[in-house]
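Appendix B, record 7
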Amino acid sequence: MNPKIRKTLKIAAWALPALAVAALALSAVPAIRIGERNAFGTELPAATVTHPRAIAQAYDYLPKRTRFDAFVALKDGRLLARWGEVDLPINTHSVRKSLLSALYGIAIEKGYLRLDQTLAELGIDDAVVPLTAVEKMATIRDLLESRSGIYIEAAGEAQGMKDGRPRRGSHRPGEAFYYNNWGFNVLGVIFERRTGLSIGQALYNWIARPTGMTTFKPGHVIYDQPRYTEHRQFVVFMSAADLARFGALYANGGRWGALQVVPEAWVAESTKSRSQVHGMDPFDGYGYLWWIDREAGTVWADGWGGQFMIVDARRHLVLVSRNDTGRSLLQLGLFMLFDGDGWRSHHQKLHEWMIQASTGT
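Structure tokens (predicted):
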């Protein structure tokens, strides 16, 4: 046999079983099921389009210049534009954090939690990497601001987060901003322990129902439990259309019609810049799990893979752009191999056109 052919067969004999094992392991992770439309789901009325040409430009731009699989824009809670698979539940990635921020605002108003509660008071530790007494002084507010001072490996970290993690013990709670998945994941744990609700059930009851979301179900939140920390990561799947409804709450002071869904004061406080941000254009600030663009007067929910939402409250405008990264870790792995991240600049361009379309400016 030709030596080159023999070598190729040996490589294949080793690689194929390895790939099969990896695929089996990844596919064994829970995946969401796409179910029926919610009985309480409602259709959104159409918004008034002032400049149809701007909509046409956006629709022409989306398939040619972006990687987005779905796009939705709302004006005053009405449908301004939609393109692609807007009803497909997609992994929100870090957009989940802004969703959790809203749940905290509601839970605090209901009396389940307080911003000044410490991890020690809440009984939070990490059985794998125990916290120090100083780390346990971190409050819920510190975690929401991503200023906990706890620098431990966490589920869902991107490489940049790992590379930028400060040395453990280098900052006390509240002293320094670091985008920290350990704190974000622990906020999920705290929420579920104190309210007695899963994040999926809370999103369904407190936000999906009152806003008439059409596809979100409690089972669209799944969990990833790593070995290197006690605290699991919650993963939220939500369609572009349903996510836009959530954004519309923040564009309207937490209200959906006449109903106050998220406390108005919380909407204002959670989207106020509390830390300066550098190297994350266009963001220059961070609130309670929201990115802030003070120059543009907008707030963003931003997730890996091209999950973007702009809330332009001044204009009562919401834009959502999404990339489908899959509904299981196997599909996510394939996305990472063959696709790529989205671009905030593309979403900003779409924002410009939606301003023109809805206001004529």
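Remarks on this record: Residues 3-27 form the longest helix (25 residues). Residues 3-28 have pLDDT under 50 and may be disordered.
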